[in-house]
Amino acid sequence: MDSRAAVATAEALSVSFAELASALRDGTGSGCSGEADPMRRVADGFLDGLAEISRLDAKSAALKAWLAAGYSAAAEALAGPATSPEDNTGQEMALIAEVACALTVSERAAGALLAEAHALTTALPLTFSALQAGTISWQHARIMVDETINLDRPAAAALEAHFLDPHAVNPARGFAGELIPGRFRHKARTWRERHHPVSIEKRHTRSAADRRLEYAPDRDGMAWLSAYLPADTAAGIWNRATTAARALQGPAEDRNLSQLRADTVATWLLGGSADCISGGTDLSSGRESVGVGGVPSPRAQVLVTVPVMALLGRTEEPAMLDGYGPIPPSVARRLVADGAESFHRVLIDPRDGAPLEIGRTSYRLTKAQRQWLRLRDGKCPFPGCSNHSLDNEADHILAWAHGGTTGISNLGQPCHKHHRLRHTTAWKPAAATKNEPPSWISPTGRHYASEHPDWEPPHWPPELLEELRLQHVGAVIDDPPVDSLLPKGQLQDHH
């Protein structure tokens, strides 16, 4: 398939979608044309449409994988052979960054897509053919890629053939596409474990080296914390947490088992005692040293950006926790009060929501300037990167040796990975401003804008607006004018 064939295939897929939608609107999408009940015929048509959409999704995913693999091969050919391991790493980083920006996905997702596309198009022909035919889904294809990682070619081919080749020796009962992805993963993993050429003892020792802890922000002031651990360790933690949580249950305990289990583990990890989790979820007792469920407050070197009115308790606007996002103002007040040595409080301008100036002009990059960069960028400024680590590296956009200054408008704060990308590949940052991070220009000349925090005007309490209005009624000259103190339009709206 060449590039023109790929475009033709994409156009054919779009036509298929259009024809399907038209058929469903006309009520002719069902194969049950002899059904006496018209409503049943319509319902069957929509169900048939869902099944057809699923097949089209699979075909579209196959085309996407083929395009990704094709671009990877073409980019490698254009770059030429690497002259050193560092050069090879730089070429790979630049390739992944280009695909990530083109698809507006994270670099992790782009890297995974490229790896999966390469595996499907070069090592898993049966899986790729089934995906192109629409008989398995993209989830099934990804599972096959996952379960054949670290297998040699014969072992991978045997696993693939077991589920997708009906003529294989002792094939699976039923086609892979007939199983939901979760069940297919279980069956594929079971077969892999039974037929793996390397003993499970050796594989476990190797995999144990990859143990890690992961953190993922979520909505409503919450986050996920997960750990990749040896199975016995994970099971032991789970069982111990469950036993401890059940011991806390009783008539006076209003938390369910899941909440008690989470509070117990959090208390252990933060170094609290068992007594810390026996007090329920009452936050009005004045004990500012504990949070929800009596869990001790964490200590970390982070910025807490708090609206002035929220800090005073006049509004319920969310504060911003660096590296996470919006948090309830009550949590922000507790963190600021309880973690004075660890948390840096930054008030925001009540007029437009921008962070108040915390730095000063200096020849050298000061600690205050670094904090300002963190406020301006919110994270590493490379498109799609979500790295909030404290060791992000301040970088002159225009090098000092070439006349660049040490001002905020000439500074970026990329993470170590993207700092290296800038200096080892053709990726370059473009101009920045005091309030906006630098955008980026890829090796192909494409321009990608950086994400930056959206500072919103804070909400002023109605009673305070009324008080200010009354103070300025009849005034000929305001010093300063009240309109300059308020978010645009709020005073007029209050009128």
Radius of gyration: 29 Å
The biggest sheet, with number of strands, parallel, antiparallel or mixed sense and barrel status, is: 4 strands, mixed
State the total count of DSSP E strands. 11
Structural class: alpha+beta
Number of helices: 18
How would you write the strand order of the largest sheet? 5-4-3-6
Coarse morphology: globular
Domain HNH nuclease: 368-420
Protein name: HNH endonuclease
GO molecular function: endonuclease activity
Region (Disordered): 429-456
What can you see in these coordinates?
- The protein has 495 residues and is of the alpha+beta class.
- Helix content is 49%, strand content 8%.
- The protein is built from 18 helices and 11 strands.
- It has a 4-stranded mixed β-sheet with strand order 5-4-3-6. A 3-stranded antiparallel β-sheet has the order 9-10-11, with no helix packed on it. Strands 1-2 form a two-stranded antiparallel sheet.
- A hairpin with a 3-residue loop joins strand 4 and strand 5.
- It is globular and about 85 Å long.
- The chain starts with a helix and ends with a helix.
- The C terminus is likely disordered.
In short, what is this structure?
This protein is α+β, with helices and mostly antiparallel strands and 495 residues long. Helices cover 49% and strands 8% of the residues. A four-stranded mixed beta sheet has the order 5-4-3-6. A three-stranded antiparallel beta sheet has the order 9-10-11, with no helix packed on it.
